[in-house]
Amino acid sequence: MQIFLILFFASCSKEKVCNKLPLGTYTGEFITPNGNQLPNQTMQLTEVSSSYLVINGTHISRNECSVMGTFLYLPLLYQGGPVTIQGQISKKKGKYFLDGFYFTTQFPVAQPVSGTFKLKQN
User: What is the number of domains present in the chain?
Assistant: First the structure.
């Protein structure tokens, strides 16, 4: 019974964090598998609902704390996209984060590029 209560409160707490994701400016950090950091991106979170987020005008699907979506344009690479992200919403030391994995195809060469990303609340 005690384990159930701990899990219940932990999941409620996590859900509350995910539902209180604040609108505003976030800094996007994208790291390649070999440790290269791509140029930081200034990103605007303009809408939060129970099923999606709007970041830089792009609808990103959301299921509680999980997020997934594709930016048709994000100037990380030569042609800027598309860039697909898949990750989680979290809160650490009073700041909100979205972090996980990204992948894209680098045009015109069409070589897959992937790595980790973190959007940090400013």
Answer: 1
| Whole-Å CA distances, 111 to 17, 30, 54 | 37, 17, 28
Q: Which domain covers residue 99, as residue numbers?
A: 2-121
Q: State how far the Cα of 24 lies from the Cα of 11, in Å rounded to an integer.
A: 25
Q: What is the CA radius of gyration of the chain?
A: 16
Percentage of the chain modeled with pLDDT above 90: 52
Q: Are 95 and 73 in contact (CB under 8 A)?
A: no
Rounded Cα distance, 95 and 4, in Å: 28
Start-to-end CA span in the chain (Å): 40
Alpha helix segments (H runs only) across the chain? 2-19
pLDDT digits (tens, 9 = 90+) for 13-57: 555 678 889 999 999 999 888 888 888 889 999 999 999 999 999
Q: What is the CATH number of the domain that holds 114?
A: 2.40.128
- How far does CA 11 lie from the centroid of its chain? 20
